[in-house]
Fold this protein.
Amino acid sequence: GAHPVGVYGSYTVIEYAGQHWPGVPYRWQTYAWSGTPTQVSAYQTMYQFLNQQYLCNRYVDMDRHFDSPAW
């Protein structure tokens, strides 16, 4: 069967995907490439807001999940 796809990128990438690619349901935005001050797209379904945090003996990136149960 078909598997849904997603994109990961900047504010500009997520805005474009949300406006032009209705078949792409998952849109993961990173703050790192989204300007200063950071712009947050209304089209994102997950938002990466912090990088390289030490947690449980590992470095991880911190994300907020909004709308997509598959992620």
